[in-house]
UniProtKB/TrEMBL annotation:
Protein name, as recorded: Chloride channel protein
Location of the CBS domain: 470-527, 535-595
Transmembrane segments: 26-45, 65-88, 116-140, 160-187, 194-216, 236-254, 274-292, 324-343, 350-372, 384-408, 415-432
Membrane topology: Multi-pass membrane protein
Location of this chain's protein in the cell: Membrane
Species name: Butyricimonas hominis
Length: 595
């Protein structure tokens, strides 16, 4: 742990803590504190979004459309952009992706403003109708709370990473009232390699956050309709079909989301981006009002058997008794939801894809159930397929089947449908994995080479920094130097490799000791033979900005044990396999040590 000063109240407490409380015990205390603060943050965020949403929608007419569905989202995007640009002054959207980036590239340090800034921005975005969710926001908030509390108490990187996981677990546990899902989410999506020493703090945080939420908001679940019917084994094949559909849909969700955000991102002027993206979002929500906000009320209606309510507040209200119109409207919702989500985030809004993936999957599950029932082959319960579709699409989008099945089981009030949830989640995961290996959170980081993966080797390499393994004790030689000059350099060096540079310190080649061993003692050649006569050009060079995964790929492809490192074409030094392996072992022991 970092050395601390004994000045000030915090400093005196830290000194007292070091003397009186063992680190393992303090980690448990810290995890409980993270749970309390994260639970409170979740309650505040949920209420801010709910009451803002109600304030703007409670007076709208059910039997007709409203231009307010066009206007409100645009205002929300504009207010969010103003807040982020002039107050926060850095991007705060894509909360889970930012948490992954903090773990892999920022030594698990998250800026303190994330304790509250994304909550305010999400309230402006979602409360005014932005078609995103609050879950990624509260995950970033919880992770930030965990990171900054650990940093305040001068904990090391491993504990800070654990507290990020605790904050994320507490966030999911509190906002969904699903402690098991919170823990599993942390294991599947965020963490590298967890042991029992890490699971205990995670459980304390999740339970604490859940208890705080219970006392402040009651024991109600996300949906008012609770599942009590048991799974019918004869419906097994239909859940397989739903799983495949959800897997394909999740691939569409990931790719379309990223594609649209990239298209909107090409508009460099932020005010034009707000105007264009906000206007397009307004048009989409004006046509499909269930896309307004998180969309959980629409899912509640589907599970309660009130599918006709999907056409409330629309110009299609008069067709609510038409089965064909309902099918067409549901299909539109499934494929347009991801567009609305991408437009919200891409044009300046702040929110996550957690709720949108649940919405898309739930509506898709309802469509499958509806088509099965209309076919007359068999009657299935639509509410069951809504829940299974939610689990399936979330599993494919997030690449987290365990999180999906436990979350839906907990928010639906029981485990009566655990088998179909498991089946749909796993099949969706396998279906999507073949087409899209990364989750939507990890896709951007994977493109940039910043991804912290669950493959231990790759993850540890990600944690390693190239500039920490560059060796600079190689004696250099000029390209016009003679063999005699080179022998003098060799006599002062402990290495058997000599970089050859020009006047601008650019690498031209290398000379190996083995290549000059037979002539280096022939003094007749000292003034007649030049370094360039023995120089060879390296087949591969490494840029200082290359990721460690790229570096290892270059070693593998070249078969070399030492490769030169350049920065802006200037020679820096060499990196060796031996140095990387030694550093790898140290990082692995430090990160995975249970003690």
């Amino acid at each position: 742990m970092a050395e601390v000063s004994d000045k000030g109240l915090l400093g005196r407490f830290l000194v007292w803590r070091v003397r009186n409380i063992k680190e393992k015990q303090f980690i448990v205390i810290l995890s409980i504190l993270v749970g309390i603060v994260t639970g409170l943050a979740g309650v505040v965020l949920k209420n801010m979004v709910h009451y803002t949403h109600v304030f703007f929608t409670e007076r709208m007419q059910v039997d007709s459309g409203s231009l307010f569905f066009f206007v409100y989202p645009v205002i929300g995007i504009l207010l969010t952009t103003l807040f982020v640009k002039f107050f926060v002054k850095e991007g705060i959207s894509h909360g889970v992706t930012k948490v992954l980036y903090a773990i892999s590239r920022r030594n698990s340090m998250i800026k303190p403003h994330n304790n509250y800034s994304s909550m305010i921005a999400s309230t402006l975005t979602i409360g005014f109708g932005g078609s995103v969710g609050t879950e990624a926001t509260i995950v970033l908030t919880g992770a930030s709370i965990g990171s900054n509390l650990a940093r305040m108490f001068r904990m090391n990187y491993k504990v800070m990473t654990l507290m990020i996981g605790c904050g994320a677990a507490g966030a999911i546990a509190g906002i969904f009232k699903a402690p098991i899902a919170g823990i599993v989410f942390t294991l599947e999506v965020l963490m590298l390699d967890l042991t029992m020493a890490s699971l205990v703090p995670l459980m304390f945080t999740a339970i604490t956050s859940y208890v705080v939420t219970f006392f402040l908001m009651g024991d109600g679940f996300v949906f008012s309709y609770q599942i009590t019917d048991k799974f019918v084994m004869a419906n097994f094949p239909y859940y397989v079909i739903l799983g495949v559909f959800a897997g394909v849909l999740s691939v569409y969700f990931v790719r379309m989301n990223i594609r649209i955000e990239q298209l909107i991102g090409r508009v460099k002027n932020i005010w034009k981006r707000v105007a264009i993206g906000g206007a397009l979002l307004g048009v989409v929500i004006f046509i499909f009002p269930p896309l307004y906000g998180e969309g959980y009320s629409a899912l509640d209606d589907l599970m309660a058997g009130h599918s006709d309510k999907l056409l409330n507040n629309t110009y299609f209200f008069g067709f609510r008794d038409s089965t064909l119109m309902l099918i067409l409207f549901v299909v539109g919702l499934i494929f347009v939801k991801v567009i609305a989500t991408a437009l919200t985030n891409g044009s300046g809004g702040v929110g996550g894809v957690f709720a949108p993936s649940l919405f898309t999957g739930g509506v898709a599950g309802f469509l499958v159930a509806m088509l099965i029932n209309l076919s007359g082959i068999r009657h299935v319960e639509p509410s069951h397929f809504v829940l299974a579709g939610m689990a399936g699409t979330m599993s494919g989008v997030m690449k987290a089947p365990l999180t999906a099945m436990f979350l839906i089981a907990e928010i639906s009030g029981g485990y009566a449908l655990f088998l179909p949830l498991m089946l749909t989640s796993v099949i969706s995961y396998l279906t999507s994995q073949g087409m899209e290996p990364y989750s939507i959170y990890a896709r951007r980081l994977a493109i940039q080479g910043d991804l912290l993966t669950h493959n231990k080797d790759k993850a540890v390499l990600t944690l390693m920094k190239l500039n920490k393994v560059v060796e600079t004790d190689f004696k250099t030689i000029g390209v016009d130097a003679t063999l005699g000059d080179l022998v003098k350099v060799v006599s002062k060096s402990s290495r058997n490799l000599f970089p050859v540079l020009n006047d601008r310190q650019q690498l031209l080649g290398i000379v190996l000791l083995d290549d000059i061993r037979k002539v280096m003692f022939n003094q007749d050649m000292y003034s007649k033979t030049y370094v360039r006569d023995f120089m060879t050009t390296p087949s591969v060079v490494i840029d200082i900005n290359d990721s460690m995964e790229v570096v290892m790929k270059k070693f593998e492809d070249s078969g070399a044990w030492n490769l030169p490192v350049l920065q802006d074409h200037q020679y820096l030094g060499f990196v060796s396999k031996a140095k990387i392996f030694n550093t790898y072992r140290k990082v692995l022991i430090h990160f995975s040590d249970d003690e």
